[in-house]
């Protein structure tokens, strides 16, 4: 398998072989994700579409398109993207504005995070995470010697981040917003941002979350299911078995915990989940992790989550050995995006943090999410082909 990978990603002039361990880990997650999506979605897929493999087939197409995008981007020197940084910023803003255009936008519940183009549903915020990362990485490289200055560093950073965040909040797409903010702060720090400035921003964020929690801590009237869903998620974190909310606002949390708990150490067995029979909502999307836990159990689940940690580790090494600040910022941004999104998804499903409604990277159903993540991985692979000595390969 390694020989086929070497041939497929043959280095261009001035490059060396890519990080093969990173690619193998990515392929393992994609294949495992397809298997688990097929199992988790089979019941609801048949009930909605009279085809047990409807979601699997669509996900397979998305992975093929994403893999093609990953391959093409991995063949392009990442430095070439730097001159398009400002364009990527405007593209980010434009994509977020499109969801408010009548005739284009598509609503799902209370969220307006999708647009319809040629009959296909697209979630612009998924591409915004990558586009904004390009701009931020390039901007930090240009401003690297001025970041200690308030007017040149933290204030412009916060102004741009606030604009993007405000548009996401209006949709509302709070889960993606939290990922974007967390990833941006990590990239700003790695890119040379003043630690005191970052600490101040984090403290303000903690205060904002605390105030929001205090507001959300008001009792939900009668458990009618008509309360603010953001407030109810905080209340479910505190007490998911409250008599008034157990069967309404906290229903998904409780069903998720049942699925995870019933998997035990070794699981019920592949395809043997009971919660996927219309007990747990969104089993092919945000809530696929509980089904995985139920079917393969705690031990194998740890091995599965280890793959995400391994990708983060390889990405860290790539960032550390990147030939310049732009490559380092991009690599850190990609791996923090993946690991933070994984934490938000898994943490929400086991009630460690409030549910954020974000998909499990590379596994949850969603073409836009898969393609944007694979594009990001193609970028990371290209950076790994230009690292300084230290990843066990020599330059041609």
Provide the β-strand percentage band. Answer: under 5%
H/E element string?
A: HHHHEEEHHHHHHHHH
Count of helical segments?
13
The overall pLDDT average reads 84
Report the biggest beta sheet as strand number plus sense, adding barrel if it closes: 3 strands, antiparallel
Q: What is the approximate shape?
A: globular
**Roughly how much helix do the residues carry, as a percent range?**
55-70%
Briefly, what is this?
With 396 residues, this protein is mainly alpha-helical.
Helix/strand layout:
Blueprint: H1 2-8, H2 20-49, H3 54-74, H4 85-98, E1 105-108, E2 111-117, E3 120-122, H5 124-142, H6 154-170, H7 174-190, H8 195-216, H9 229-238, H10 251-262, H11 288-320, H12 325-349, H13 367-384
Antiparallel strand pairs: 1-2, 2-3
Helix pairs in contact: 2-3, 2-11, 3-13, 4-5, 4-6, 5-7, 5-12, 5-13, 6-7, 7-12, 8-9, 10-11, 11-12, 12-13
């Amino acid at each position: 398998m390694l020989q086929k990978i070497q041939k497929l990603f043959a280095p261009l002039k001035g490059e060396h072989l890519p990080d093969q361990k990173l690619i193998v880990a990515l392929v393992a997650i994609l294949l495992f994700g397809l298997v688990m999506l097929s199992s988790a979605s089979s019941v609801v897929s048949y009930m909605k579409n009279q085809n047990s493999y409807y979601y699997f087939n669509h996900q397979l197409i998305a992975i093929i398109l994403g893999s093609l995008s990953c391959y093409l981007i991995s063949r392009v020197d990442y430095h070439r993207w730097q001159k398009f940084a400002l364009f990527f910023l405007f593209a980010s803003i434009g994509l977020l504005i499109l969801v408010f255009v009548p005739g284009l936008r598509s609503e799902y519940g209370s969220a307006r995070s999708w647009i319809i183009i040629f009959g296909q549903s697209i979630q612009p915020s998924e591409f915004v995470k990558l586009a904004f990362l390009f701009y931020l990485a390039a901007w930090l490289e240009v401003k690297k010697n001025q970041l200690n200055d308030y007017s040149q560093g933290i204030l412009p950073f916060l102004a741009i981040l606030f604009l993007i965040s405000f548009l996401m909040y209006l949709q509302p797409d709070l889960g993606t917003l939290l990922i974007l903010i967390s990833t941006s702060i990590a990239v700003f720090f790695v890119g040379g941002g003043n630690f005191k400035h970052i600490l101040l921003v984090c403290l303000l964020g903690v205060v904002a979350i605390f105030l929001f929690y205090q507001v959300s801590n008001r009792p939900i009237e009668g458990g009618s299911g008509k309360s603010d869903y953001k407030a109810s998620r905080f209340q479910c974190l505190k007490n998911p078995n409250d008599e008034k909310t157990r069967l309404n606002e906290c229903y998904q949390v409780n069903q998720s915990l049942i699925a995870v708990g019933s998997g035990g150490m070794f699981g019920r067995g592949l395809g043997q989940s009971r919660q996927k029979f219309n007990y747990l909502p969104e089993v092919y999307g945000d809530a696929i992790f509980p089904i995985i836990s139920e079917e393969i159990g705690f031990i194998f689940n740890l091995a599965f989550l280890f793959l995400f940690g391994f990708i983060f580790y390889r990405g860290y090494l790539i960032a550390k050995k990147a030939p310049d600040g732009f490559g380092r910022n991009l690599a850190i941004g990609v791996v923090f995006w993946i690991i933070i999104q994984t934490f938000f998804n898994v943490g929400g499903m086991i009630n460690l943090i409030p549910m954020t409604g974000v998909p499990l990277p590379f596994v949850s159903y969603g073409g836009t999410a898969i393609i944007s993540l694979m594009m990001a991985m193609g970028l990371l692979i290209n950076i790994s082909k230009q690292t300084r000595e230290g990843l066990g390969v020599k330059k041609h």
